Every structure is written in structure tokens, then in C-alpha cells.
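Entry for adenosine-5'-triphosphate complex. Fields follow.
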Amino acid sequence: GLPGLESDQDGLSPAENHLQEDILAVDKKMMVQQPRYKCHQCEPPDCDHSTQVCNSALYCFKSTVRASDGTLRYSRGCSSRRDHYQFTCRTHQTQGHSKRHAAAPLNITCCQGDMCNEGPFPPLSPADTAIEPLTSGAWKLWLSVGLSVLAVSAIGGLIILVLRRTHRLRVSRAAQKLGVDSNYFTANMYSSHVTSAYYEGAEGSQACALQAVAAGDSTLRQYLEGSATSGSGSGQPLMVQRTLAKQVSLIERLGKGRYGEVWRGSWCSDSVAVKILFSRDEASWARETEMYSTVLLRHDNILAYIGSDMTSRNSCTQLWLITQYHPLGSLYEYLSRTTLTRHQMMLICLSTVKGLLHLHTDIHGTQGKPAIAHRDIRSKNILVKLNGECCIADLGLAVTREHEDDPRRGTPRYMSPEMLDGSMSPVCLESYKRCDIYALSLVFWEVCRRVSGRGRRPPYYEWAPQDPGLDDMRKIVCVDNARPGIPTDTHPTMQGMFSLMRECWHQNPSVRLPALRIKKTLLKLAANDNAIRLDEDTEVYV
Ligand SMILES: Nc1ncnc2c1ncn2[C@@H]1O[C@H](COP(=O)(O)OP(=O)(O)OP(=O)(O)O)[C@@H](O)[C@H]1O
């Protein structure tokens, strides 16, 4: 019979090479002489073994094949075509000829001679009948891949450690040169909370340390206190504007307003508030930045400005405005949480009007400032400080005399009658200041409600929907001439507060009191109330 053929000659032993030569000789003989044989053609039960015979075959074969489900199939047959011989017989596996094929799922035996393909079928090796286990070669491969990954990670880690150490050394040497406490310097650089996705390397921390040296201070608090108490009102941004966003890491979102989001951020271990506006509100950002930085604005009762930056995140422009952070949040939120004593009420009202007075006042000289109207005074735009005082925030709509022809803007609920009905004429800074006073009186009303223990309510809550529009408010304030209800509190201080409010929300703007007069009235009320203890150095006007 014709032996099976090994198709691949690589790595064959001399005996195997000899066999290969024999096979080639048979191939050659077949091509030339082409004798023909009878062969068994199939295997029961597919056919009757004795009757199914093929004639004139060039060769016969019998085979054992392992199907994908593991069962063995047997067959016999023949072929009269030379090219089939090449495919069939030259691809079968000879048992034991090559280790590489020991696990092959078929074994075919070809032969020449009448009925030479009868008898037992060629066996498959034991390995062929079982699921092939993972060879030792595969284990070695996995082991070497695992070891390589480990080695690369270890080397990477080592490099990072060395670089970090070198950098620390470099930084502390630089700090020593500058005379800064190197612990402070490096601690800030690697402080654990500077881990937000927005933190972009050590550049920021380095810049803040260098800035701190330049300012002669080491913390934001000292910087802010220094510039506030000096009265210089420098208002110049402490940080380099170009890199400001890189120096601040965002920690948590505090709230979302009409113009964007406010986040608590961290800068040199201090908390800061970051207002993030999208590019469509660039006008508001630019106005607020202009007010804070060019107007030389700094006052205990105006939110302290740190700086502004324009940055790009995920291919959209973000406008950052960084200010001092006040953990108690807005007056609106504070009043929702707590009732007030008359002392607390007075601190809130007096400090707010002091902030507004500073805004409204023209200060001449090199350290001066122009008068500013806020145009969006409301409890959400006033922040409560830890000492119980308040500061005015959100200067996005603020105007000076330069912007007098700005269109009518603000929050409808707090808009004055003349702004609602369009009778505000002429449109000048003084008119806007009177609108601020009207809005301030509504804030006072919100605060005073909490002294008598009533729940926090927005002004005009009895008549206005949740988010009233201009028309809603025009009807209430101008047509119906309604004003917030006055609680029945007989205490003289509260009575004084209510009559102050009535004067400030008067229909006629020119009757409303200016901020300075309001401040004086509050101081007088406070002086006559034993429950109110203001700082000794607070001047009392009569
Ligand atoms: N400097 C800050 N310190 C602490 N919390 C702040 C500070 N600035 C803003 N917040 C908080 O973020 C919230 C959202 O402020 P934001 O000024 O964006 O919104 P708003 O005043 O509610 O609405 P609008 O954008 O319409 O004025 C505020 O309610 C306040 O709680």
C-alpha cells in the first residue's frame, strides 16, 4: 500500500527524508504509468461494503477523522484524479512521523492495489481523542509575558520615583534660595487634595509659591486680609492670569446659576470659589472681571476677587472667575437653614448696605474708584461670611457711568417699578442706584421675616409664580401697586426696619433713601437695641 505523506519537510530526520524520497518516486511512477485499481467506496451503515466498489481508481484510501463534537468518523474511497491524490494523500498524518502533527484530527492512508483500502482504519493518537491540554510551551509563553509586564512596570515605577525625588530636591533647593520654608513649598506641591482632573502638574504650585514670596505672604488669607485692611484696594489679581486655571484644582460643585456653575476649588491649600461661565456669557465674565480688577475694588463687604482666566476644556472655552470662598453660601441658602436674632439680622443688613455704599460711592484720587450700580441685588447674590457679616457678589451686570446706556437687565422679581414699566428716565447711574435700593429693601424684608421665625419666602411669593417674568412682576408691582406684607412685630427695632423698607421700595425712586442714609439709620436702630452689640469701633451716626 501507499504510505501516508508528510507535507512539511522542515525538521525531518534522515529516515524521514528517505521516506520522503520514496514517496516522490511513487508520485513520479503514478504520473507515468497510471495503473488503475478497484477500491472499497464507502463504509456501512452508509453503504453495503461488499457492493460499493469503485473501478479504475488511481489510488484507494481509508481515513479516520475526529469531528468537532469529538466523535470519530471512518470512511473509505478512491479517486481517479491525480490532483486529488496530491490533496488527499499528501496531507494525511503518519502516526509518529512528526510530533507537531500528533494531535491532528485526521489520519488518512492511501494505497495502490485492488481493494487495498479494506481492513482496520488508521488510528488517531491518544492525544487526538481528548481535548488537547495547554501545552508546557503555552505556559512558558504566558509566564514570559507576565514577567515582561512586571519588569516594565517595575522599571517605570523606579524611573518615576527617581524623577520625583530629583524634582523635590531641585524645588527645595530653589525654595532655600528664595528663603521660603521648603516644607510648605513641597507640601503644597504634592498636597493630596490637588488631585482633580483639572490639575495640570506642579507648575501651578510653583507659581503660587513664587507669587507668595513676591507678595511677602504665604497664604491667600493673608493676602486678602492684607490688601483689604491696607485700604489700598489694589484688586490686582494675585495670580498670573495666563496660568490661573492650571493653579486651581476643582473639588466640588457648589451650585449652578443662569450664567454657569460655581465650584469650590483649591489653590495653595486654600479654598477658593471658581465661577465657570461658558463662552456665550463672555460679556458677563468680561464685565465682572473689569469691575473687580480695573476698578480697584476691595472691601470687606464685597466678595474678594482673586483673578480671572480663559481656559479651554474639551475643545470648549471656559471663562473662570476666582473669588474668595464662603462656606456658609448665599444669604438665600442661609435664610432657608436658620432663623435669626435681631443681632444677626442687623449684622447682615448693615454689612450688606456697607458693601452697597462702597459700590455706589465715587472715590477720587489714585486709589479711587468710580461709582458702580450693581443691578442684580438679591439674596442669591449676597454671601454670608463666617463672622456673620455679608458680602455682595455677582458683578456681571454692574455698570459705571461709562455704561449708562446699558439696556434694562436684572432679575424680574427684584426689579423696581420704574424698570418694570420702562419709565426709568433718564437712564443714568443714579437711576440704577435707586433700583439697587429698591432690591435691597426686598432683601431686608426676606431677612426680617426670619427674625420673627416665619419661613423663608421670596418677595411677592403670595402673588408671583416661582420664576416670574417681566409681565408677571409689572402687573404685581406697577399695576396692583403691591408690596411684600409686613409682619406684625411690635419691637421698636423691627418697626424701624419696616419703615426703612417702606421708604426704600417707594414707587417714586427719588423718595428712596440713599445707601449712606440707610447705613446711618441701621446704626441708630442698633445703638438703641440692647440685643444688638456691634463692634466698638463702629461709628454711630445720629
Ligand atoms: N464665593 C462663594 N463662596 C461660596 N459659595 C458660593 C460662592 N459663590 C457662589 N456660591 C454658591 O454657588 C451658588 C451658585 O452661584 P451663582 O452666582 O452662579 O448662581 P445664582 O446666584 O444662584 O444664580 P445666577 O447665576 O442667576 O446669579 C450660590 O447659590 C452659592 O451657594
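NOTE: Confidence is low (pLDDT under 50) at residues 1-12, 92-103, 177-219, 226-241.
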